[in-house]
Amino acid sequence: DVLVIGSNMIDLITYINRMPIEGETIEAPDFQMGFGGKGANQAVAASRLGSKVSFISMVGNDTFGKQQLANFKENHIDTTGVSIGTKSSGAAPIFVEPTSDNRILIIKGANNELTPEVLDRYIDLIKNTKIIVLQQEIPLETNYHAIDLANQFNIPVLLNPAPANEDLDINHVSKVDFFSPNETELATLTGMPTNNLDEIKRAAKHMIDLGVKNMMVTLGSKGVLWVSKDSGELVPAVKVKAVDTTGAGDSFIGSFAHYFAQGEDVPTALKHANQYAAVTVTRQGTQKSYPTAAELVSHIN
Ligand code: ADP
């Protein structure tokens, strides 16, 4: 069982020839709506692999909220913990230029209404899981409360500090079992350089000294650096031809949670998460690119 506490967003992907200037209206060649938000993406990845996934999240009181709920159900996610807020659903207008350059706006909307008090309504979900997974598109205080509850009930907790937030409180981070930043997020948090593997190792060890049990620094096509108190290794990525890396980080986190919840040890779960994330970068889209357990087999063999 996996419990994800976090965000959901509707991606409004607009393919443009160029940005309009002020006062101008121009045509854009294409548009696509997509289900996103880091929390939702991670929940979908774990669920497609076969985990029993519960999600604590907040959708808006609007059409997007209804579509989100339908999408969670379609992906066999338990929505007991999903509530309807008063604000609009979280949305992300994304503008993609012909050069593939992106401009992204994030409207957190109802995700900001996922307050610490909301978690107290779902203590049963929090107590009865193998791992709790957190990201940073909901209020930081809610994550802190989730970490405290996880510690109280002895449930392993994974914090994926994305998007980076300089205000993240190190005292709470030090209480997590798994901390999974990318190089940039690690640099933001520690204020240490992360330009090469030695520097990344040093910054990761610093976090271990502060109390984090396992550091898992994702390194894109290089894989993931695992550091714990007495061991650690670079778990290399699978070599693939990447066509779209959006959502790769989330597929990695969600699949790691699945494999860990299945009882795999950390390096094995990391190896399998690398395999899962590698398949997603060979396919277009975010959740759309996440394979089921059955599809994954055909990719690996
Ligand atoms: P983020 O998108 O959060 O920055 P990364 O780019 O570090 O995350 O990617 C997360 C994981 O996805 C990596 O650890 C790796 O397993 C996988 N991955 C990302 N890009 C590639 C790639 N080009 N080839 C193979 N695996 C990849």
Automatic annotation (TrEMBL):
<dbReference type="InterPro" id="IPR002139">
    <property type="entry name" value="Ribo/fructo_kinase"/>
</dbReference>
<dbReference type="Pfam" id="PF00294">
    <property type="entry name" value="PfkB"/>
</dbReference>
<keyword id="KW-0547">Nucleotide-binding</keyword>
<comment type="similarity">
    <text>Belongs to the carbohydrate kinase PfkB family. LacC subfamily.</text>
</comment>
<comment type="similarity">
    <text>Belongs to the carbohydrate kinase PfkB family. Deoxyribokinase subfamily.</text>
</comment>
<comment type="subunit">
    <text>Homodimer.</text>
</comment>
<dbReference type="InterPro" id="IPR029056">
    <property type="entry name" value="Ribokinase-like"/>
</dbReference>
<protein>
    <recommendedName>
        <fullName>Deoxyribokinase</fullName>
        <ecNumber>2.7.1.229</ecNumber>
    </recommendedName>
</protein>
<keyword id="KW-0418">Kinase</keyword>
<feature type="binding site">
    <location>
        <begin position="37"/>
        <end position="41"/>
    </location>
    <ligand>
        <name>substrate</name>
    </ligand>
</feature>
<feature type="binding site">
    <location>
        <position position="280"/>
    </location>
    <ligand>
        <name>K(+)</name>
    </ligand>
</feature>
<comment type="function">
    <text>Catalyzes the ATP-dependent phosphorylation of 2-deoxy-D-ribose to 2-deoxy-D-ribose 5-phosphate (dRib-5P), allowing the use of deoxyribose as the sole carbon source.</text>
</comment>
<dbReference type="GO" id="GO:0005829">
    <property type="term" value="C:cytosol"/>
</dbReference>
<dbReference type="GO" id="GO:0005988">
    <property type="term" value="P:lactose metabolic process"/>
</dbReference>
<keyword id="KW-0460">Magnesium</keyword>
<feature type="domain" description="Carbohydrate kinase PfkB">
    <location>
        <begin position="1"/>
        <end position="292"/>
    </location>
</feature>
<dbReference type="GO" id="GO:0005524">
    <property type="term" value="F:ATP binding"/>
</dbReference>
<feature type="binding site">
    <location>
        <position position="289"/>
    </location>
    <ligand>
        <name>K(+)</name>
    </ligand>
</feature>
<feature type="site" description="Important for substrate specificity">
    <location>
        <position position="9"/>
    </location>
</feature>
<dbReference type="GO" id="GO:2001059">
    <property type="term" value="P:D-tagatose 6-phosphate catabolic process"/>
</dbReference>
<keyword id="KW-0067">ATP-binding</keyword>
<dbReference type="GO" id="GO:0046872">
    <property type="term" value="F:metal ion binding"/>
</dbReference>
<feature type="binding site">
    <location>
        <position position="285"/>
    </location>
    <ligand>
        <name>K(+)</name>
    </ligand>
</feature>
<feature type="active site" description="Proton acceptor">
    <location>
        <position position="250"/>
    </location>
</feature>
<feature type="binding site">
    <location>
        <begin position="218"/>
        <end position="223"/>
    </location>
    <ligand>
        <name>ATP</name>
    </ligand>
</feature>
<comment type="pathway">
    <text>Carbohydrate metabolism; D-tagatose 6-phosphate degradation; D-glyceraldehyde 3-phosphate and glycerone phosphate from D-tagatose 6-phosphate: step 1/2.</text>
</comment>
<dbReference type="InterPro" id="IPR011611">
    <property type="entry name" value="PfkB_dom"/>
</dbReference>
<keyword id="KW-0119">Carbohydrate metabolism</keyword>
<keyword id="KW-0630">Potassium</keyword>
<feature type="binding site">
    <location>
        <position position="244"/>
    </location>
    <ligand>
        <name>K(+)</name>
    </ligand>
</feature>
<keyword id="KW-0963">Cytoplasm</keyword>
<feature type="binding site">
    <location>
        <begin position="9"/>
        <end position="11"/>
    </location>
    <ligand>
        <name>substrate</name>
    </ligand>
</feature>
<feature type="binding site">
    <location>
        <position position="137"/>
    </location>
    <ligand>
        <name>substrate</name>
    </ligand>
</feature>
<keyword id="KW-0423">Lactose metabolism</keyword>
<dbReference type="InterPro" id="IPR011877">
    <property type="entry name" value="Ribokinase"/>
</dbReference>
<keyword id="KW-0479">Metal-binding</keyword>
<feature type="binding site">
    <location>
        <position position="182"/>
    </location>
    <ligand>
        <name>ATP</name>
    </ligand>
</feature>
<feature type="binding site">
    <location>
        <position position="246"/>
    </location>
    <ligand>
        <name>K(+)</name>
    </ligand>
</feature>
<feature type="binding site">
    <location>
        <begin position="249"/>
        <end position="250"/>
    </location>
    <ligand>
        <name>ATP</name>
    </ligand>
</feature>
<keyword id="KW-0808">Transferase</keyword>
<dbReference type="GO" id="GO:0009024">
    <property type="term" value="F:tagatose-6-phosphate kinase activity"/>
</dbReference>
<dbReference type="GO" id="GO:0004747">
    <property type="term" value="F:ribokinase activity"/>
</dbReference>
